[in-house]
Design a protein that fits this description.
Layout (H helix, E strand, L loop, with lengths): L1 E5 L4 H5 L1 H9 L6 E5 L14 E4 L8 H13 L6 E4 L4 H12 L4 E3 L4 H8 L10 H11 L27 E5 L11 H14 L4 E4 L6 H8 L6 E3 L5 H8 L4 E5 L2 H8 L4 E4 L19 E2 L25 H4 L3 H13 L3
Helix pairs in contact: 2-6, 3-4, 7-12
Length: about 350
């Protein structure tokens, strides 16, 4: 069986395809797949058997005519027995239409948009299916029986260059794309000082993209030389470094997912979003999630992806999370007393 799979963005969502792809391809030697994704995400898929990556520059395929050319380019990559759309956006809707028109069966993710709207509006409050489970359901619909493998799911080759120092070595991913998911930087600064007081030999490794370098440099300057910036490293180098962390502290962001998929304990900080929406760190301990309970803030969650502004105007969901609350979770993760 030859599968054509679409998942173009975003980084965290693309990374979450890895457990599903391993669950499909590792136990089934008769299945091969071509994944259409972005070139930047290639390191996530290291070592997955019978997986071919196709990474077109989407800037070259704009509009309906461009997508028609992209369809033809994908078609030239090989023969397929079915199309798996794990993205379900306008671009993939058009692409899968072309493949369906030629007779290929198409299977599409159910993103649970109606349930997620109900969660945000307060009509329901229960865990929704995790994104990985939603991916697995698409393969099940195509007649494949996935078998989840053990962590780590992202497997990076050993590197001699990226070695950690400090005990403990703590990964810090303090930033998120949207303000409703970003813990105030003064709180993060206080947390690092608290952890430094509790662990005199600690070393902090600050993870983020080049566009976040200036903010991370400002944070590093407050740690008295205990912090190491990773923004100049390549993605494979960052992953190799992150894999060696004793614990990673992260907002609801791509780095949270990467740490979990690398098998590292993750202390995740949640503001206006909520793990119930299906984006919790995959297969991680719920006791390491830091958030203000809904009983105290009935407005949570007020967003699925972090977009928008605070309805209260005070970001209480983030401001009420104290450095002591996060440090307690970090120390539980370090001692294994969860």
């Amino acid at each position: 069986m030859r599968l054509l799979i679409f998942r173009l963005s975003a980084m965290g969502d693309a990374a979450l395809t890895v457990p599903a792809l391993r669950a499909v391809l590792e136990p089934h030697a008769e299945i091969s797949a071509t994944l259409v994704t972005r070139r930047a995400f290639v390191p996530f898929f290291e070592g997955i058997p019978r997986l071919k990556l196709y990474t077109p520059d989407l800037k070259n395929y704009k509009g309906l005519c461009g997508l028609r050319r992209l369809y033809r380019a994908i078609r030239r990559q090989g023969r397929y027995d079915a199309v798996i759309d794990l993205h379900d956006v306008l671009r993939t809707k058009v692409l899968r239409f072309f493949f369906r028109f030629e007779g290929l069966p198409v299977y599409v993710i159910d993103k649970g948009r109606k349930e997620k709207r109900a969660l945000v509006k307060g009509k329901i409050f229960r865990p929704l299916p995790h994104t990985v489970e939603r991916y697995l359901d698409v393969f099940r619909a195509a007649g494949v029986k996935p078998h989840l493998t053990e962590r780590p799911w992202i497997r990076i080759k050993e590197t001699k260059e990226e070695k950690v120092s400090g005990s403990p070595a703590l990964g810090i991913a303090p930033l998120a794309r949207h303000a409703l998911k970003s813990w105030p930087m003064d709180q993060m600064t206080a947390l690092l000082q608290l952890l430094a007081d509790q662990h005199p030999q600690v070393r902090f490794y600050l993870f983020g993209g080049q566009e976040e370098a200036s903010q991370l440099e400002t944070l590093a300057a407050t740690t008295g030389g205990r912090a190491i910036l990773t923004t100049r490293l390549t993605l494979p180098q960052q992953l190799a470094l992150m894999r060696q962390m004793d614990v990673v502290i992260s907002m609801d962001s791509a780095n949270m997912h990467l740490a979990a998929l690398l098998g590292v304990p993750v202390v995740s900080v949640w503001g206006a979003t909520h793990p119930y929406a299906g984006f919790a760190p995959w297969n991680s301990n719920e006791n390491l999630q830091v958030q203000i309970p809904k009983e105290e803030l009935p407005c949570r969650p007020c967003t699925i992806y972090g977009k928008g502004s605070c309805r209260r105007g005070d970001l209480a969901c983030l401001r009420r999370i104290t450095p002591e609350m996060v440090a307690e979770k970090v120390n539980k993760a370090l001692t294994g007393k969860l």
